[in-house]
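@channel anyone free to eyeball this complex?
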Amino acid sequence: MKTCQEIVSLVTTESPTGETMWTRVSIGLHLRLCTHCSRLVRQLKQIARISRATREEPSPDLEERILYRLLKKDRLE
Amino acid sequence: MVRNPADNTRRTTTEDAGDGTISTSHVPQPYLSACDERSGALLRDLRERNPEALATVVRDHTRDLYRVAIGMGIPAQDAEDLVHDVFLTFLQTLDHFAGRARLRTWLWGILRNKIHEYRHARGRQEVELDNDAGLDLMAPRFDARGRWLRPPADLHRLLNSALAGTAIQSCLQRLPPRQRLIFRLREIEDLDTREICTLLDISATHCGVLIHRARLRLRDCLERAGWTGNQS
Ligand SMILES: [Zn+2]
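replying in thread with the prediction:
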């Protein structure tokens, strides 16, 4: 059995190799049973979602503007 | 250079560019062999200054380059110029590229240099090492057996408030610079972790740990901001 501390560390750290099947299963099981850890995970997901919503999108014609500048420059050379 | 037999079929790039679609996908594409097959023909077309080929490259990569620039703290009013300069340098150095690297990686490398030059020109410092490298933020919240001593408080009131975004932004400002950078690139700009590590020139393991710290530190800041409780 993994402790709550281990679970928190596992769900927030991004392992380069990814988690094993067994680890993923035990995380899922723990989160279903533990209100504290599942609350934390829920909050972190919510924080990520809200912060993504604050992102300022570039204007839709960004690509075309850059392309226009590049092609204009090419013609002058 | 190893010639891919598929290079002979040079139709792919220009046809793809013809449909006028703009790729807005910011999900990193796996390194498919299809990219290799296309890159030879694409490179030839670029050398010949084929506008369709240039359009393909610009449409495929602009949005992600822009996101990286913003995520790296370049102000929006300068980010567009910076991305334009990336393509300009790319065209000037086509012969060095020669299809050796994945196009995306190559462009990101140029962008990295541009950001470096940008910061240098404005006398800004590079992102510092974290000052809390050894500190485990969560440790005091657990007992010796790894059980919660101080469980996470309810953030319902904050997270469902119209001010949630503002509160998060203000807590983000208080993160150590590198954690803030990684959080922005990973969670806000939604970039792939491996690509972020390469961009910042840190190991994948360290990168994963920094993301872990950033997420928990940001949450901790929100909890301490006094927004706890579930009454509205
Ligand atoms: Zn738990």
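from a first look: DSSP finds eleven helices and no strands in chain B.
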